[in-house]
Amino acid sequence: MNALILKDKEVFPTDEVLENALKSSYPAFNKLRDELTATDVRIEWNYYNDGKAWMGKMLFKKKNLGWLQIYDGYCTTSCFFMERHLEAIGGLDITESIKTNFYQQKPSGKLTPMTVNIHTAEDIDDTLKMLDFKKKLK
């Protein structure tokens, strides 16, 4: 797996920093950010010492829906789900390979991560569906 690249604690992920890191996938990130804003999801950037990198927490009101990670040339969005959600996830209208990867993941404690790689604007729809599903969970 590729390494996160926003490693400098002193360099906040501004638009310029993100554009330099994401390169040709920056327009997709920008569209994702616009779509998140339109659905009342905000990105809160924090530097995490355990991963030694900046990550974006995707928040709906006070609920943490998932994480946004920046890699060299693309970004990922990840949500974590409990075992009781596994059956419902099977019915989500998202790319089959994302579901397959999810079901092959090892849980981290009681949670299993679902990750969507975002290279182009076409990849955003799966993230929005994943986040919408997560919003509705109790």
UniProtKB/TrEMBL annotation:
**UniProt cross-references to InterPro entries, sorted A to Z:** DUF3788
Instruction: Write down the superkingdom of origin.
Output: Bacteria
Q: Which Pfam families does UniProt cross-reference here?
A: DUF3788
For this entry, the protein name equals DUF3788 family protein
